[in-house]
Amino acid sequence: MSQSKKLLAAFAGAKNAHGTTSVGRIGRNGKADSKSKIIREPLTDALVKAHIKGEQGVGAIPINEDNQCRFGAIDVDVYDLNQKEMQEKIQKLKLPLLHCRSKSGGAHLYLFLKEWEQAAVVREYLTEMSILLGHSGVEIFPKQDTIIAERGDVGNFINMPYFNAETPQRYCYNSNSEAMELDEFLDAVEKNRVELADLEALRSTTKVRKHFDDGPPCIRNIFSDGPQSEPRNKLLFFMGVYCKKKFPDSWQASLEEYNRTLFSPPLPSSEVLTVIKQHEKKDWGYTCKDEPFKSYCDPSLCVLAKHGISDDAPDAPQVGGLTIMLSEPRLYFMDVNGLRIQLSSEQLQNQTLWQRACMEQCNFMPPTTKPQKWQQMVNSLMSQATYIDVPYEETIAGQFKEHLFAYCTSHIRAMAPEEIEMNKPWTDGGVTKFKLEGLLEYLHHRRFVGQTRAHIIQMIRDMGGDNGIQHVTKKKGQRTTIRCWYVPAFEEDETELPVKEISNDIPF
User: Fold this and answer.
1) Is residue 87 domain-shared with residue 32, that is, in the same domain?
2) Final residue of a domain: which of 239, 268, 302?
3) Which of 372, 388, 404 is the endpoint of a domain?
4) Distance of CA 314 to the CA centre of its chain
5) Are 363 and 411 found together in one domain?
6) pLDDT at 302
7) Residue 136: inside a domain, yes or no?
8) Same domain as 201, residue 236
9) What is residue 310's predicted lDDT score, i.e. its pLDDT?
10) What is the reported pLDDT for 128?
11) How do 98-101 and 466-473 pair as beta strands?
12) 378/369 Cα distance (integer angstroms)
C-alpha cells in the first residue's frame, strides 16, 4: 500500500467532507493568520498525495455521521512548547499517544483506535490524558460528542501531519524526541492502535485513587506522578480546602498526614502550622485560577465531585468549535460542553437567546456573563471559525438567478418592445429588458419573498444589469420612452435548476 493510502487510512473519519487551511501573514505572537474551510467532498488518495508533496494541505474530520471516530487528538496550541519535555512526559505516563509537531510549533497528540468508537467516550479519555499532561482546557478532537448531520453539520477538522513530507514541519517524534520519517510514522500508527479496554486499564494506573478520589481532579492528577517537592505551600493550602470539606472534625490532622506522605521532603512543622491558622480564620475556596491547578483543571468533573467546587461557584460551560455554514441566512454550529447546538445570527449575537438555545438543545442554562466578556468570546470564536460553503444555487443570489432566468425566458415574453409596459420581458440585441414591478410581481407569485426592493436591485446589478430607457412607438406613431431594467440575455439552453414553485390553486 502506498504512503498516501496508509496516511488516508490512519486518518479515517468523515466520509463526505474534509478541511483546508489557507495561511496568511505571521503575527507578533508567532502564529500565522489563517482561515479554515470545510470542503463537502471526500478526503481522497489524490488529495493526500498532494498534501504529502506540499501542493495543498488538507485536514481530516475525526467524527463521522454515526458520531463515531477511529482517531482523536489533543491540540496543545503553545508556540514555545518544549517538545522534548512533552515527549518525555508522554513516555513516563505510558500514554498511547503519537506526538507530532503542529504547523504553529505546538503539538498534536494523536490517539489511534483499533475499532470505531463513540466520539463522546474517546473525548473523555483524551480529556483525562490532557489533564495528566498538565494541559487542561486545550482543544480535543473530535471537538464534539455528536454532530447535527441532518442540517449539514460535519464537525471540525484537524490538519494532517507530513505536509511536504520531504522537508516537513509537521512530523512525529520518536522515543528519543527525534523526527520520524513518514514511513516510520505510518508503522507507529499501526503499532500504537488501542482498544477501549486498554484505555480503561491505563486510567486505573495513572490516577491516584487512594487520595482525593472525591475531590478536585487537578489535585488528584498533580500527585499521579508521586510525591511532589514544589510548590509545596500552594499545594498544602489547596489541600487544606479539601480537608475541611472531607474531614470537618479532624482536618488539621489529615493535613499534617498529607504533608508527611505526599511531599518530598515534607514542609517544616512551622509552615504547616501557618497554613492551618490561615484555614482556621476563614473558609477559603479552591484557588482554581492559580498554577499548577489551572493546567490540571477539569471543571466539568470537579463540579460533580463530592468535595469539588461548591454548588454556588461559577458554572461556565466549555464553549468552542464554531462552524459557520455560508447559507442565507447563515447557520452556526457551536460546541457547548461537548454537545453540538445550532444557532442563528440573532442567537449568537444575543446572550439571552443563546442561553435559551442551550436550554432547548442541551438541557442546560449557562450563567450570564458581562456583555463585554460575551462580545470578546463571540469575536474570538468568529476569528477561529471553520466555514462550510454551500452550493451557489442554494444561496439567495443563486435562487434569484434561477427565477430571473425563468422570468426572462418564459412564454410571457414580449413580442415587441411596446409590451414592456405590460410587464413582459423583451429580449433584443443581447440584453433582456423588463419593468422592475413586473419582475417583483413574478417573484411574489413564486414565493420568493423576504428580500427588499434594494436587495433585488443590487442582485440585478451584480449580474451585470442596470436601468435605462427603451424608445418605443405607440399605435398613433408617437415616440415615447419606457424606463426599465436590463440584464445580459440568457442562453435558453443554459443549464439551470428547475424553479421550485408552490401551488396556489384554490379548490372548488
Assistant:
1) yes
2) 302
3) 388
4) 24
5) no
6) 77
7) no
8) no
9) 54
10) 86
11) unpaired
12) 12
- How far apart CA 124 and CA 118 sit, in angstroms, is 10
What is the number of structural domains in the chain?
A: 4
Is residue 333 domain-resident?
yes
User: What pLDDT score does 209 carry?
Assistant: 46
404 and 384: one domain?
no
Same domain, 172 and 298: no
> Domain check: are 357 and 380 in the same one?
yes
How far is the CA of 300 from the CAs of 109, 218, 403, in angstroms? Answer: 22, 12, 51
Provide the pLDDT for residue 391: 77
pLDDT at residue 83, rounded to an integer:
95
Same domain, 336 and 293: no
How far, in Å, CA of 438 to CA of 456, rounded?
13
DSSP string, 299-347: HHHHTTSTTSS-TTS--PPPEEEEEEE--SS-EEEEEETTEEEEE-HHH
Residue 8 lies in a domain: yes
Q: Which of 407, 374, 376 is nearest to 486 (CA)?
A: 407
CB environment 264-302: b (16+ within 10 A), e (fewer) = eebbeeeebeebbeebeeeeeebebeeebbebbbbbebb
Domain containing 250: what range? 227-302
CB 496 within 8 A of CB 405: yes
Look at residue 226 in the predicted model and tell me its pLDDT: 74
Three cell numbers at 120? 463522546
200 plus 67 within the same structural domain: yes
Locate 494 and state its grid cell: 443554459
The predicted structure's pLDDT at residue 132: 83
Q: Is residue 142 part of a domain?
A: no
Report whether 202 contacts 95 (CB < 8 A): yes
Mean pLDDT by 10 residues, the chain (508 residues): 96 95 60 76 96 95 96 90 94 95 93 97 92 83 90 91 94 95 97 94 66 81 79 93 91 92 92 94 89 81 73 62 87 89 94 95 88 88 87 83 92 89 92 95 88 91 93 79 94 53 36
